[in-house]
From TrEMBL:
SMART domains: WRKY. It comes from Urochloa decumbens. This is WRKY domain-containing protein. It is found in: Nucleus. One of its GO terms (cellular component) is nucleus.
DNA sequence: CGTGTTTGACCTGCGC
DNA sequence: GCGCAGGTCAAACACG
């Protein structure tokens, strides 16, 4: 169940049919019990909707700030704009079968966030499309030569290629956490301070270390400087945290204690709960069996329908 | 020894 | 059809 406004929801589950306010005509004891459960569920629904609304506002705020900070590809510190070459339009085969890439894109231009932004006017229709490609721009420490996007997943590198007009080699990764996971990631550093990761597909498993990222997200909430990037896809902006500068990882046992304490605080926070709820809801609503069963259960509460 | 990375070869699609 | 360039494969290698 995606607990948010239709127009902003990446999942199109219409439950309005089953939530008709008109009460059933007959009220047996069993039905009264069911009604109580329904009332409870509706109360939870309202509460979770509110939490989701707040979370979405937060994301929108972060996204707006990101746009201000990097209004154009040049402003992000990416490589100077290269003239459109045949290379830009050449790569159209496999990726296009999934989702057409933005036009006039030479390689992994960060400007793609514009074309893939979920905040454009046809948000609802666009958000109903299946998310296939997202892009993450991450500010990195120039001294960090690993050029790795620490996004919580376990990636296995399967190739590297030097591409035209880009001195930095492009690396190709597969998700190594689950062999069947279809997600692939391309990583290239077009600039010494900005790392661009392009994700293709969706993980069919949970993120093994997502909680750790949320822990750092809490650091942002506390006002500390947190390396943060925003992934733009058709379903909404996703906050991805760059853990390459995780200061607390440098202090041994003391740092480990800090991590534990911060994780506990984070798990207790509203942001964590809201994110958890949304992730769970997203996972559930992607399961057509679940949505069918849910719809059937709701309809059973309304025998007259 | 198992796991992950590197790297050259190969495959594929598109433009000319 | 050919050449180019991106993407993938797989053997060799490095590392803990």
């Amino acid at each position: 169940m995606m607990l948010m406004d239709h127009r902003s929801s990446p999942v199109c589950l219409d439950l309005s049919v089953g939530l008709s306010p008109s009460p059933p005509p007959k009220m047996s004891a069993e039905m009264a019990d069911d009604k109580a459960k329904t009332t409870t569920l509706e109360a939870n629904f309202t509460q979770l909707s509110e939490e989701n609304r707040r979370l979405r506002e937060t994301i929108a705020y972060l996204y707006a700030n990101h746009q201000v900070a990097s209004p154009s590809p040049d402003a992000t510190g990416s490589s100077p704009p290269s003239p459109p070459t045949t290379t830009a339009s050449r790569k159209r085969s496999r990726d296009d079968s999934i989702e057409p890439p933005p036009p006039s894109n030479s390689g992994d231009a960060i400007s793609n966030g514009k074309a893939e932004s979920p905040l454009h006017s046809d948000g609802f229709e666009g958000s109903c499309r299946r998310i296939k490609v997202s892009r993450v721009c991450t500010r990195i420490d120039p001294s960090d030569t690993t050029l790795t996007v620490k996004d919580g997943y376990h990636w296995r590198k399967y190739g590297q290629k030097v591409t035209r007009d880009n001195p930095s080699p492009r690396a190709y990764f597969r998700c190594a956490f689950a062999p069947s996971c279809p997600v692939k990631k391309k990583r290239s550093a077009e600039d010494s301070s900005v790392l661009v990761a392009t994700y293709e597909g969706e993980h069919n498993h949970a993120c093994p270390t997502r909680a750790g990222e949320l822990h750092d997200h809490g650091g942002a909430a506390r006002g500390g400087p947190v390396p943060c990037s925003i992934s733009i896809n058709s379903g909404g902006p996703t906050i991805t945290l760059d853990l390459t500068k995780n200061r607390v990882l440098e202090g041994g046992a003391e740092a480990a204690t800090d991590i534990k304490r911060m994780c506990r605080q984070e798990i207790a926070s509203a942001e964590f709960r809201a994110a958890l709820v949304e992730q769970m809801a997203s996972s559930l609503t992607r399961d057509s069996k679940f949505t069918d069963a849910l719809a059937a259960a709701i309809l059973r509460q309304l025998p007259d329908y």
